[in-house]
Structures are given as structure tokens and as C-alpha cells.
Amino acid sequence: MSERYSRPMLGLHWLIVLLLVVQYFSSEGPSHAHRAIARGMQPEAFDIFLANIHVWTGVSVLVLTVIRFAVRYFGGVPAEAAGLTAWEARLSKIGHYALYGLLVIVPASGMAAAWISDAAGGPHELLTNLLWLVAGLHIAAALWHYVVRRDTVLSRMVPWIKPLNG
Question: Where on the phi/psi map is residue 128: left (φ > 0), alpha (ψ -120 to 50), or beta?
């Protein structure tokens, strides 16, 4: 089994990352639009534009995450990175499961907020903050492996980066 992730897994990973960046920068649109509607006002056109981008990129994140599950199941993933301690391997699994779970739950709660009830907006925001926290820890762990451990963990998902150990 390869030490690197497959091209489909790499593509899905980075496409989801890109969509999450779009989500971040479009996140005020739905809030502003919902507030205007709640006050009996017409939302600003730009807020509606951002809200539409936010909703449809969220749907895309959910669909791509489900596709990623299928690619992972049928195509497999590389073996655990060499040299991980037992606690690092366990934290890695917990972190990845948390990310995958949040990549399903956050868009689902956002769709509920957009299409079913504004009441889902609060939980959606809370879960979104949790997603950003877990994603930040994921990035920090990857950088720790690259800079401190100087191992191949980061280069498995970032093909243009070579391990610092040579």
C-alpha cells in the first residue's frame, strides 16, 4: 500500500478545504439575510448572494464528504504513518473521525437552518465553531509533524511538500 493518499483523496481533501474557505468568507450573508427577514425588512442583494453561495457550497461539502467516504472505503487509505506513538495514532483517529463527523453534521444543520427552521441556526453556528477548532488542531498537528518531528505525515496529503529530514 502506498505511503501517500490517492489522487482522488487528495483532490477531495483540497476541494473541501477550498469550499470551507468560501464558507468562512460567505458566512455573514445568511446571518444578515435572516436578521433582515426577522425584522420584516428586505435583505440586501449582496447578503442574499452570499447566503446562496454559503448554502450551496455547504451542500457541496456534504456531497463531497460522502464521496470521500466512498473513495476511502473502496480505495483505501495509506497505512498509518511510520513512527507514530500509540497516543499519536489514537489522537489522529479521533481527530479524523471528528472532522468527518463535523463535515456531515455542520452542512446538515446549515441546511436545516436554511430550509426548515431558523432555530437550527444556533446549533449550526456552535458546530461550525467546533469544526474550525478541530480543523485548526488538525493543521497544527500536521505542521508539528513537519517542523518538529520532521516525518512524512504532512507530505502524505500535501504532495508538493517534501519531509524536512531529507
Answer: alpha
Query: Does the domain spanning 7-156 belong to CATH 1.20.950?
Result: yes
pTM of the predicted model, to two decimals?
0.90
92-115: pLDDT as tens digits = 999 999 999 999 999 999 999 989
Domain residue extents for the chain: 7-156
| Coil, strand or helix at 98 | helix
Pairs from 12-16 (Cβ < 8 Å, separation ≥ 24): 12/64, 12/67, 12/68, 12/71, 13/68, 13/157, 15/64, 16/61, 16/64, 16/65, 16/68, 16/103
